[in-house]
Specification:
two-stranded antiparallel ribbon; globular; 5-stranded mixed sheet; 12 helices; 7 strands
Length: about 300
Amino acid sequence: MATAARSGSAARASARRPGAGECGTGRREATRREAAPGGALRVAALAGLGGRHWRREAARSGGQLALLVFLLGFLYCEIQPPPAKIPGSPGGPPVTAPRAKLKDGRHLAYLKSGIPKDQAKYKIIFVHGLDCGRYDRLNVSHVRNWASTCCPYDRPSYGQSDAHPARTEKNIALDMAELADNLQLGPKFHLVGFSMSGEIMWGCLKYIPHRLAGVAILALVGNYWWSGFPPDVLKEAWHVQFPQDRHAVWVAHHLPWLTQWWNIQRLFPSSSVKAGNPAILSKEDTPLTQKIIDRAHMAAGRA
């Protein structure tokens, strides 16, 4: 009985496995199909179509990559600031103002007004705003009445001061401390920041508080992301601006690397402050605009 069972199992296994003759027959049938008239051509044609499709896809991908590289290169060139014009060098502005040399070799141009510093009760460094310079300073008669000496200076890249492309809030503050040392204003001095330089004053309070006897801010341009302002005040101040000014401030805050391009592009309205749009002025400021335009140093720059 055991022998019969084994014989039955072997028979069933043998029935399931194709014989050598059947395998050979399958291979011969496949060979005949490939060898049939036109079979090899069909296989070659399919292979050629696949190769051409792959080449087309590769060419398309290569073209897209080249276009992307070109656009990125073009964007990089567009957002770069122009080369700095070094004062006193060929192509740069002439040096006519006294300048203080800093430790890193840069120079800051400055003026002096008021009474001599050894007689002054207050020693002031005045920091100008946008589109201004060392000539835009406190009224000289006021400075004298305050028994003060005032030293306005050209911020880096302005006027006859050297550029500092890598400037930060911290090194701007350290520049002022070093300027005060160069001018021998003593261990402590006062700062006055006008317009855009109001924000610089906050950096000075953070990084050189031990050098400051006092700080004043005039006509401050606000930072709409300062956490210390009440939200309703910030919201109201934000929406008082023209739309193009909101866009310009938003770009400067969130995409600072794009600021240079935004200020020179013509696709969208740029900052109305930069464009000198008189619509931004209050009725009290409007009569003063011609006086600002007629300032001696501004007239000299237009000549």
